[in-house]
Write a sequence for this structure.
């Protein structure tokens, strides 16, 4: 069973997200300290930004899967050995970008990072691929696919796209290096991305499909359609030099022949897009994060949508929702906000998983939602970071940064981390600071050609 991003969104309220655990995970979690624990240190904004980037990097540096050096699907501080060799394909793409940011900021040694990245890319080269696509989960001990569901045991094109987004950034970062090992790393990343058979996943139709299995073929039958987290899949498919799609696949698939756009609004803020085909509401925040770690939404338009407006307004609406707090949850406010897919509190107090959003609001805040929105809502996101690091550090910050989820209302948290939640944090903070990853990805010649092919224009990047 998959999450969000699918037509299951409406009928299941997206019970699972891109590479995460199931709601069957019901281990009891020890509650945090009382919510009135006083702050012991007040950090400056610059100190907080530096701390949260270093903290998030630890997930991909100190807690990586030991053999491949790619991202573990999850890390539980209350059960560190759980799923230690389960690799998150999409989360690993976010991890590649996080490590590049770590190199840039001097938080990880460059030579050691290059060595690790070489190990990771060599592992990916030898891992199971399905018409070029990797599976949702990969076994870190041998590179075989780990089924995400009964029929989901083959290629996952969206997870692959998130991974390739990171590979493109690695390629671009090292492509002009005079160091032989770094140049070879760039070339390996290029080879890996060029091997994905994007057009195979159309079944000859004008839409991309999410899955293909050597056993079940296309029985999953899940179309990739916007607006959700999957935009970069179409961009990469159009940009592919060997397995490209045509514009009609994008128009009819992702953009739904224009029905992706909407005139609806919330709190006086235009939605711009229909989230996962639903009218008048917004989905979880990861819709506006995963594709945009590399893809720069600022001034980015196609013939239907201004993606800068769509992503910014999504975050603003989510902040306003917490202020309005229609379900009267204790703790929701202008400085404590953010709903997205993450671990969650089950009704009996155990830990599950849910795609939190206004139509599925369980009183649980997911830190990545507000933090990773910082390019869209810099003031509101900084207010949230102060809430975490200056007012609640001892409760909500752990060994790899902010814990995945908590609830003030229930005095509950889970002392756990997920790759797909920690992954966007440092890249999006860096994009807000310097547009670092946005520039790497958007200035890649093949990516720019793919965007132009689909009718995109970017005021930030000159096309």
């Amino acid at each position: 069973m998959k999450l969000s991003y699918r037509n299951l969104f409406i009928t299941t309220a997206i019970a699972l997200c891109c590479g995460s655990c199931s709601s069957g995970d019901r281990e009891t979690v020890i509650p945090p300290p009382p919510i009135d624990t006083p702050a012991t240190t007040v950090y400056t904004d610059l100190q907080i930004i530096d701390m949260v980037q270093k903290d998030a990097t630890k997930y991909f540096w100190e807690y990586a899967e030991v053999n491949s050096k790619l991202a573990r699907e999850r890390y539980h501080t209350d059960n560190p050995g759980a799923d230690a060799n389960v690799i998150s394909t999409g989360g690993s793409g976010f991890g590649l970008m996080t490590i590049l940011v770590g190199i840039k900021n001097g938080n990880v040694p460059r030579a050691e990072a290059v060595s690790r990245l070489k190990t990771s890319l060599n592992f990916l080269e030898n891992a199971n691929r399905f018409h070029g696509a990797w599976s949702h989960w990969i076994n870190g001990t041998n590179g075989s696919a780990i089924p995400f569901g009964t029929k989901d045991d083959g290629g996952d094109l969206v997870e692959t796209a998130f991974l390739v987004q990171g590979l493109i950034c690695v390629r671009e970062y090292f492509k002009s290096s005079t160091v032989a090992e770094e140049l070879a790393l760039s070339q390996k990343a290029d080879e890996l991305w060029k091997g994905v058979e994007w057009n195979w996943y159309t079944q000859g139709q004008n839409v991309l499909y999410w899955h293909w299995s050597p056993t079940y073929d296309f029985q999953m039958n899940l179309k990739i359609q916007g607006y959700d987290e999957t935009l970069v899949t179409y961009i990469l498919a159009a940009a592919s030099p060997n397995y490209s799609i045509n514009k009609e696949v994008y128009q009819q698939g992702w953009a739904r022949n224009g029905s992706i756009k909407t005139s609806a609004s919330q709190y006086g803020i235009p939605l711009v897009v229909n989230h996962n085909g639903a009218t008048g509401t917004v989905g979880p925040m990861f819709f506006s994060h995963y594709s945009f770690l590399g893809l720069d939404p600022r001034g980015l338009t196609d013939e239907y949508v201004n993606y800068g407006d769509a992503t910014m307004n999504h975050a603003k609406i989510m902040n306003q929702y917490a202020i309005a707090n229609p379900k009267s949850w204790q703790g929701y406010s202008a400085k404590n906000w953010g709903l997205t897919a993450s671990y969650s509190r089950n009704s009996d107090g155990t830990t599950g998983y849910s795609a939190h959003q206004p139509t599925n609001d369980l009183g649980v805040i997911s830190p990545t939602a507000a933090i990773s929105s910082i390019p869209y809502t810099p003031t509101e996101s900084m207010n949230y970071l102060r809430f975490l690091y200056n007012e609640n550090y001892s409760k909500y910050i752990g060994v790899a940064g902010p814990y995945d989820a908590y609830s003030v209302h229930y005095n509950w948290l889970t002392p756990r981390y997920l790759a797909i939640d920690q992954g966007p944090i440092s890249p999006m903070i860096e994009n807000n600071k310097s547009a670092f990853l946005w520039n790497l990805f958007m200035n890649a010649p093949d990516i720019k050609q793919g965007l132009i092919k689909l009718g995109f224009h970017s005021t930030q990047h000159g096309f």
User: Anything to note?
Assistant: The chain has a mean pLDDT of 92. The CA atoms of residues 35 and 411 lie 7 Å apart.
